Amino acid sequence: MDKYNLETENDPVVIVISTTGTGDPPDTARKFVKRIQDTTLPPDHFAHLQYGLLADWMRICIYEGLGDSEYTFFCNGGKTVDRRLQELGAQHFYDTGLADDCVGLELVVDPWIDGLWLALREAFLLQKEKEGMSSNDDTVSSSLSAAPPDMDELNLSTEVRNLKLEDEGVRSSDVLSQKLVDIHLASSTGDTEPSLVHSVPPISQSALNIPALPPDYIEVEFQDTHGENPHPSSLISEGTAFEVSVTRAVRLTREDAIKTALLLELDIADTMFDYQPGDAFCVICPNNVSEVEELLQILGLSEKGDYFVCVKVKQGAKKKGAAIPQHIPARSTVKFILTWCLEIRAIPKKAFLRALVECTSDVGEKRRLQELCSRQGASDYTRFIRESDVCLLDLLHAFPSCKPSLNLLIEHLPKLQARSYSVSSSNLYQPGRLCFLFNIVEFPTCPARPVSRKGVCTGWLAELVAPLLHPNKNTSDAKGESPSTEKISIFVRPNNTFHLPADPSVPFMMVGPGTGISPFIGFLQHRQKLREEHTDWEFGETWLFFGCRHQDRDYLFKDELRCFLENGTLTHLKVCFSRDSSTAEVASPKYVQEVVRLYAKEVARVLLQERGYFYVCGDKKHMADGVSDAVVDILSMEMKVDKLEAMKTLAMLRETKQYLQDVWS
């Protein structure tokens, strides 16, 4: 909005836009979106404009995991802009691309970029013809025509106004044919199957198209060991952080349960932290201490971990708009940067792999890294890096001759994100307290990852609260007082829609298997307190569909749910157990989506006749999609309409915020 005036822009415009939250455009695009959504704009407002749009959809929320093409709001930020520009008369010069982080952005992005150069060329030449300048614009035409057939190498003339491409493309030196390296690989291993470190024909014998080497732009100056690191909460830009005590920790699952679920209670009494049931909040967490130490050792920085470094932009840096990442302090220790600032567990992007090639001395390892970041190695990258959740440490173990510098890590590793969790309590029911529930995430060993790991945040929290879970004489003083409380930093992440109905007389249904029950405990606590304080109010019926593996191992909040039933806060509780064997002649349903189908008439009544609410929380792929399918079938059957019409009805219920999801991948 500040740099370009689209109202007068005649050159082709390329828009790249992501989607955040529940289908919203990113913060940086909101001003623009608000401007084009002005209802007073005439339908030919952008009739002069020709554009191409690439929309991507990335999993930016660690807990809620928003991101795949089946999700309701897939690429909605881009679709919103695309649809509105079309309504205002703008024309595509190139088809819209919709990229999906769940299957790999590069599967859509790379071909889209390939086609972009040809589409731009045609758009510019057509533009010049319309202006009657085709005969005397030899410079543009010859510049475009002289480019090699590979569109990656196409350089558009700098005479073309408002378009400056700094991507150097794929140089001829990057098209590699290294038969000697293939012989080296073949002699070093007898494997016939590809792996992270080993390739097989045809890729092992192919010439490779690899990305251009990203220009380095960060400079790290080692100083002394004197000074203080900033507080980790100072790195947060999303809101005010509060340091709070963990006052209670309870294991809700038995020792022999497949997953370990912990409930933590935080003391927020002396803070301004406020929340509603259904909200989420974020925990500021560090990387694993042993992983940081291991990384320091591999980088040759073990002796310098406590040294302060000054991070600057390299003088004469070629990267356009080069700047120190906002999450990197101007001055802090090496260990602080690796512990609190960088997501060392991030899946390396191809640009990072390309940069690591230059830090690798072994010729065979260098070739394999080139393959993994090449166009020809796209399937290997997906299989051995993306799908295997490989991180930097895994790569450095797999390719021991790779020795990257600290500045390279700062340039390529993303910000260590705070982890988001649903609130599992009510401030009305438990004033000054906030509870949340989580499973300790486990990453088992695999060929690309020789050691098992726990989730960054859940593993850290479990270790932090271990004294509360297993108090003993070493953690209590002589007076028998409770062990000293640990503190964590949190900040609120309000959910504008996943809340109780404003009208308490409206009925609602909740579907939350496993830890998906978390927000609904807050709902029920809140409802119970309202019932106690307002005996003259009318309250609608409440349903909860809960499921777990074993009734005696991981039935979360079993006693609390029974109490809610007995005091009338919860009207209906429907539970299923997926791994318990049944001796009944008719097998019991194993999953919540199957149980929901058993109450088709009640679901239809609550949603359609009583205009109630339907909440779903938990795993998207294996549960929420199944529940959504079940509701569609119920609507189709009860309304006596076809499936397409039922899907439209469900879409309308989503639009009116009657069907609400808080799901993660």
From TrEMBL:
Assigned GO CC terms: cytosol
GO biological-process terms attached to the record: homocysteine metabolic process; methionine biosynthetic process
UniProt KW Transcription regulation keyword: no
Flavodoxin-like domain boundaries: 1-117
Region (Disordered): 131-151
Keyword Oxidoreductase: yes
EC numbers for this chain: 1.16.1.8
GO molecular function, one term: [methionine synthase] reductase (NADPH) activity
FAD-binding FR-type domain location: 239-501
Bias kind Low complexity: ranges: 134-145
Database matches in SUPFAM superfamilies: Ferredoxin reductase-like, C-terminal NADP-linked domain (SSF52343), Flavoproteins (SSF52218), Riboflavin synthase domain-like (SSF63380)
Domain of life, source organism: Eukaryota
Pfam family name, one: FAD_binding_1
Cofactor section: FMN; FAD
InterPro entries with a match to the protein in the record: CysJ-like_FAD-binding, FAD-bd_FR_type, Flavdoxin-like, Flavodoxin/NO_synth, Flavoprot_Pyr_Nucl_cyt_Rdtase, Flavoprotein-like_sf, FNR_nucleotide-bd, NADPH_Cyt_P450_Rdtase_alpha
Keywords from the UniProt entry: Amino-acid biosynthesis, FAD, Flavoprotein, FMN, Methionine biosynthesis, NADP, Oxidoreductase, S-adenosyl-L-methionine
Enzyme's top EC category: oxidoreductase
Transmembrane regions: none
Signal peptide as annotated in the record: none
Stated name of the protein: Methionine synthase reductase
